[in-house]
Amino acid sequence: MRKMKKWILAAGTALLCIAQALPVAAAPEKEEAEQQQEQITEVKQQKEETEESLEDLTRSLQELEKKKQAAENEIDTLDGQLVTTLAAVESLEQQIREKEEDLEETGEALESAEADRTRQYQDMQDRIRYIYEQGSSAGWLVFLLEEGDLSELLNRAEYTRQMYAFDRECLEEYADTVSRVQKLEEQQKEEMSSLQAMKNEQREQQKFLEQKLKEKKEDSSGYEEQMKEADQKARDYQKLIEEYNQQIRRYEEAQRAAAANAAAANAAAAAVPGRTAADVQEAKEAFASILEENWTEEEQKTEDFAKGKELIEYALQFVGNPYVWGGNSLTEGTDCSGFIHLIYEHFDYSVDRQSAALRDDGKAVSYAEARPGDIICYSGHVALYMGGGTIVHAANENAGITVGSASFAPILSVRRIIGS
Predict the structure, then answer these.
(1) What is the pLDDT of residues 47-94, one digit of tens each?
(2) Contact (CB, 8 A) for 14 and 275
(3) Any alpha helices (H) in 135-149, and if so which ranges?
(4) Cα 214 to chain center, whole Å?
(5) pLDDT surpasses 90 at 247
(6) Closest CA to 277 of 170, 163, 401, 364
(7) What is the pTM of this model?
(8) How far is CA 56 from the centre of its chain?
(9) How far apart are alpha carbons 25 and 98 in whole angstroms?
(10) Distance between CA 303 and CA 292 in Å, rounded?
């Protein structure tokens, strides 16, 4: 067992040496190019999404401009209606003041007419009373005996009749005057009531228009604020798009530089001493020791754990086989993500073929919770976790498929496929 631990430690040390010598930890130039291409694709996708967001924002700005213009047009219309309403209110108030003056005059005229009618009626009563007293049968007889002139008597009787007719005519005229003034007063009161009702309606219209105008001004102000925010956001999007363009240019320049130096890089990588792949049986024995030291037999018997254990035992069969960038053969050669993909495919699990995409497969677990079969994700590299801080992976062109230390490079995430 001590021999197995030394073997694993030696494998990890050799792998770390290779990682320090190569441009990207545990990744050959081809994988670095693959990573650069993934970065370019990712940035271009982000740029396209930002451009779509900018187009949506532009359409929103146009819609806000239309709404703001419609609100301003309505404000102008409401302003005109409010001015008309205020003028109508002022006109009605003037008419009401004039009608109040008319009513006051009519009231005075009615009081005067009623007083005249009362006075005339009283005078007529006094005259009738006098005539009655003087015109009784005794009174007429005395007049005839004293005067003895029948013609004078007739004249007096005619005068009395005329006086009766005059009084009646005056009384009827006064009564008619009072009636006309009363009718005028009632008409004026009705007109006053109508004017007051019209004024109240115009006041209500004024309140409605003022409230509506306030709301539309708030709407217009709100649209303007939204437009300012959207305009600022559009400038931010444009700035972000330019930053994406610069990133794409930098990545493409790096990609061209990497392609131009590919031959020299491959030669330099080949000059670095690599580690000969361990014997498959030795690797399996090392894995058995890892299981024994880190998990109980009961834990190893659980369904998901057993599947992960079986997956690692299958993967260890290919230790020592070559690394081929873009390859898809566990015997003829494959790269780090191809190795993961092919191993899982053998057990009918579907995982991504690209190392960056594998960071989103399954579910995330912490490194402390990692168990055999979990995927360890690095920057531009992936591996299968064996346990005990050990991985099996397609390392690079020098080491091929090998076993090494999981901490050879910073771990970005751990993804669990089995039991996710």
Answers:
(1) 888 888 888 888 888 888 888 888 888 888 878 887 887 887 788 778
(2) yes
(3) 137-147
(4) 23
(5) no
(6) 401
(7) 0.39
(8) 14
(9) 100
(10) 17
